[in-house]
Amino acid sequence: MSAKYYIVVFLFYMLSSNGWGAIAIDDSFGGGLIGNKLEVLEDPSANLTLAEVVERDFSAVSFAAPVYGYSESAFWFKGLLINDSSEPKNLVLNIGTAWIDHITLYSRSGEQAWHSQTTGIYYPIAKRPIPESQPALALTLPATSQTDIYLRIASSDALILPIYLRTEAQFQSYLRFKEHLYGAFSGLMILAAVYGLIFFSFTLNKAYLAYAINVFVWFFMFFHLDGYATEIFWKDNLWLNKYLNVLVVCFAMFFGTQFAILILETQQRSRLVYRISIGWMVMVAITGFTCTLAPYAPLMEFTAALGLAFPVVILINGIVAVKAGSMVGKFFLVSWGSPAISIVLFNSSLLGLIPSNELTQFYLHIGVFGEVILLSLTLAYHLRTATKEASNAKVIMETTAIVHTSLMKEAIPQDQIELHFRHKPCEISGGDLYNCLIDPRGKFIYIVIADVSGHGIPASIIASAFLGALDSAIDQLRSSDLSLEDSCQSVTKTVNRVMSRYYQQTNHFASMAMVGIDSLSGSTCYINAGHRALIHKSHSKCQPLLGRGSVMGMFEDSQWQSRTLQLQAGDMLLLFTDGLLENQIGDKAFLKERDLFRAIKNAHTVESLLNEVWDQHRLDKLPMEDDMTLIAVEVVKPFDRQLTQIG
User: Fold this and answer.
1) Is the CB of residue 2 less than 8 Å from the CB of residue 346?
2) Which residues does the UniProt record annotate as the domain PPM-type phosphatase (predicted)?
């Protein structure tokens, strides 16, 4: 509506006058727009009576569909209808816009008294002279007569006035055509919205949901502005009839912009354009939801001004996508050509530049529907591309997961210590890692658990690099004679130097807990680098093993505190990543820390411990937002003999 008004006003001054003349109603009368056959008088006070108006001078209307924008004036139109037929003529005069407030028709044949009738949005449909969504008034012309008509129109909405005059039969034919066309339009728009919802249900891609909402909001905007909502739902609610105009237009612009941002991936392509678009959406939302706080006419004018900026915002988003090489962006820009053409055709018909008929007022509907169809093809292309990319990404993720998993060792050749692992990434691959290694001197066992920041392929790649650095650091101990504590510190610092280089390039870091065990004596050293506390069970007593130190990779010269303890037969250690306690169903966590303490306290073996913590809570079956890893360690025999080195 807003674009239509401003284009019409701009072109008005470029048109030549068609002149005023009497309207002959004979058997060949085909009906149509009669604006350029009338004369007009503006009443700025909106208080003139018919008797006063009859004495005033009128001026010719310059085009077929008068447009006066937002005005507090009342506009009077006068015309002369001549029926040369020997039969009376039953006519219908109707306005092609449903939002006009007050329309009064005065008619008189010969010296008869003036007859008046009133319609408009302020009048319930059931009480209108002709109960239709568009304002319509009946006229009967006696045989071989001349009938003077005066039409008074006043409204707080835009005065866009396609004034039609038809015979009664033509009007009924027009109504049937309109209902059939609108029924087809409504059905296809609803199907397009369902189409988007089906795509969304299979992919959970928000762009498809935004498309469905966008289509539905556009449909509802037309449904309301064309008067059908008034006719069906709120027949006597004047507030909804008026202020909902602002709300539906703002909704259409808001969700149209949201769809453009999502389908064109503006946030990833241009932060500046994304922020401009979000700021624009906020302005539109504020305008829509403050519709009850401001006078209606200025608010609607401001909404119309926003409507001029709407295609500009959409165009900028599309151009950014096209410049980035997006085929979806090209489809999108072509789709927006359809409503642009429809606006030109619609206004050209209003201005008399192209023939006006029953189809004319549906150019905008047809244009938007064309846009919806083209956008649905855009979505289909987007889905095909996304499916192909997802397939390629899945292959990459599976390959990454295989490499990542192959670097993690789940058993050690040690009959005194039994280890069991559980690991579940939230995607195909993830950032959690674990390892159990024996140093090349055959003296110490190293049990490591770590959690790389992030998820998916990037975290998995960094985790694989972490495991490679860990293997290399332990292998470097081959020629050294370091103690257990110094060996753990050396390995931690070596891995940290590698991780710090990755952190500088990717901002990925890792938390880590390391347990070093002397295979001869059972002396144990542990280091905690920003990780969850370990849980130690000895003689049915459980306690957390705390430690101080920053996460791995963030600072190259970090220092870590080493703690020691003596493991004995029957002792257990439980190491885990934070996903074990942070994953939730709704607002409820899968597990709480007290559940872990209770499980390890009651466990007799590491197998029963894992069964209590992992299997009984069905952690393999639950939805996840973070990777989960759990390591259970048990000393099954006293440390009374030297470790037999394998390999």
Assistant:
1) no
2) 414-635
For the chain, the residue count is: 647
Query: What number does CATH give the domain 2-171?
Result: 2.60.40.2380
The pLDDT-based confidence of 275 (bands split at 50, 70, 90) is: very high
Tally of CB atoms within 10 A around 315:
15
Which CATH number applies to 173-393: 1.20.120, 1.20.1070, 2.40.30, 1.25.10?
1.20.1070
What's the pLDDT tens digit per position in 561-598? 888 889 888 888 888 887 777 766 666 666 777 777 87
Mean pLDDT in the chain?
79
* Sole residue written with tokens 């509907």: 365
Local structure of residue 23 (DSSP, 8 states): E
Tokens of 37: 């056959």
How many angstroms separate the first and last alpha carbons of the chain? 82
Is the distance from CB of 5 to CB of 69 less than 8 angstroms?
yes
Q: Where are the alpha helices (DSSP H) in 33-116?
A: 50-54
pLDDT tens profile 232-257: 777 666 667 667 777 888 888 898 88
CATH fold for domain 410-635: Phosphatase 2c; domain 1 (3.60.40)
For the range 355-359, what are the long-range contacts, defined as Cβ-Cβ under 8 Å and sequence gap of 24 or more?
A: 356/32, 356/33, 356/64, 356/65, 356/162, 357/32, 358/174, 358/177, 358/178
As a whole number of angstroms, the distance between CA 633 and CA 160 comes to 81
Query: What integer pLDDT is reported at residue 138 of this predicted model?
Result: 92
- Look at residue 631 and tell me whether its pLDDT is greater than 80: yes
State CA 403 to chain mean position distance.
Answer: 37
Domain with CATH 2.60.40.2380 in the chain: 2-171
pLDDT at 378: 72
Return the percentage of the chain with pLDDT > 70, whole number: 82
Residue type, 450: A
Q: Give the CA-trace dihedral at 538, 539, 540, 544, to 10 degrees.
A: -20
Domain(s) labelled CATH 3.60.40.10 in the chain stretch across 410-635
Strand partners, 565: 524
Whether residue 175 is predicted with pLDDT greater than 50 in this model: the reply is yes
Q: Which residue is it, tokens 């009048």?
A: 123
- Provide the pLDDT for residue 351: 47
Distances (CA, A) of 398 to 12, 75, 257, 427: 65, 73, 36, 10
User: At which residue do the structure tokens 């303490």 appear?
Assistant: 597
- In angstroms, the CA 15 to CA 267 distance is 44
Instruction: Quote the pTM value.
Output: 0.53
Q: So what's the pLDDT on residue 181?
A: 79
Stretch(es) of the chain classified as CATH 1.20.1070: 173-393
